[in-house]
Amino acid sequence: MTTAARFVAGSTLTNAAVTYYTTPANTTAIIKNATACNTSASPVKLTVTIGGTGVPQTIISARTIGPGATDSLPELVNQVLPAGTIISAKDDTGAVTGFEVSGVTIP
Length: 107
Fold this sequence. Notes:
Mean pLDDT: 96
Number of helices: 0
Helix content: under 10%
CATH superfamily: Nucleoplasmin core domain
Low-confidence stretches: none
CATH class: Mainly Beta
Number of strands: 9
CATH architecture: Sandwich
Shape: globular
Radius of gyration: 13 Å
């Protein structure tokens, strides 16, 4: 049975990569929606990585989000996250980008 879940709930990104979600043990997560909102008057560059054991993969690399814009992040949609997989993200300025990710979990 799948359960709807909010993996990252309105977190404000920093300018250093931070882990915002880790898939729990005995669970698989699937991302269904992801957005980023730039609250500043200047463009920001967003980077998102996903990883488990081994080297994390950069899914979004320095993507520009315009001033005051909210962008959907289709690159993340339908990514399957086995147990222990992390989502980390950053922007190039810090404290101006909101980040949300939701989807479903499967036990």
